[in-house]
Amino acid sequence: MSYVVPIGPYHPALEEPVHAKLYTEGEVIKDAEVFVGYNHRGIEKLATERNAIQTIVLVERVCGICSHSHAFTYAMAVEALNGTEVPKRGQYIRVITAELERLHSHLLWLGIACHLIGHDSLFMRIWDVREPIMDMLEKLSGNRVNYAMVIPGGARKDIPDDMRREFLAGLKGILPILDRIVEIATTDKTIALRTKGVGILTTEDAIRQGAVGPHARASGVPIDVRKDAPYSCYDEFDFDIAVCDSCDVYARVVVRALECYESAKILVQALENLPEGPINLGNKIPKIAEGEVVARHEAPRGQVVYKVVGNGTQYNQRVSIHVPTFKNAPTVPTMLRGNTVADGGLIVASIDPCFSCLDD
Questions:
Q1: Whole-structure pTM value
Q2: How far, in Å, CA of 108 to CA of 123, rounded?
């Protein structure tokens, strides 16, 4: 029998609205369509009525999980337009915040993936490890979400030496626990049965459809803006690109788990070698020079792109935001075909979607 099975716009596996239609023969998905646009908030339009400081506050609300990524990328665009050089200590603090954010984002997704698979004990363990990362972000910025650590020209808050030492000790304490979690995630039979061979996105399809971030790297595509086009101070750190070529949901679990180690490596290097000096160029509201520029940042879900157009005033003439979910969502129908309805929610969630980001 042929059926059309809907996932969403509201679904227990996805707290944001997205609608997927599954065209099935019995339990097998023969074809699928994905529909977005349920969450439009007009952020790009609002940005044209705000100065650079106000826009930082605005774009941090694009996404709660990767709010720093948006503020970081917008600030880099304004600084490039104005020819501004960010002090080295400010660059390091931006990177520290970005990698703490990547850690918490990946651990959040790994926990949710385990919950969808039915491995709730590992879900709780992963989120228990995530909590010290959230504590670090809160101690650093004052907030667990929307950290407000960026201003045009640098970082908003400094890292005192006692906090720096505390963060280093905390990270070194987390790594042994992370080892055990990764061991379970990569050897547990339940996880393997639910993820191996499920939601295949071949390397060719990933390239053809423009996948980015961990989603692309799990299909054997070694792309990462931090390596391909180093920005801020990423060229000063030793880290690897985590790549897996099994191209399935299991590969997406493995890649994000491995990236937690790489973020920890960057954090330890940045905290141990945090340079002296100022963290920013002051708190004046800068004019946005006339012209246009594109800035890129490797957010937890993949490449975030901001195009900022200035007209010589304090206000943006145009801010165009391109987020990784916009690139990864078109791969979902390809991954769904040939799988069962029971795996539909997990496959959609495997791209780590953020539909509030997508619907700016």
A1: 0.94
A2: 9
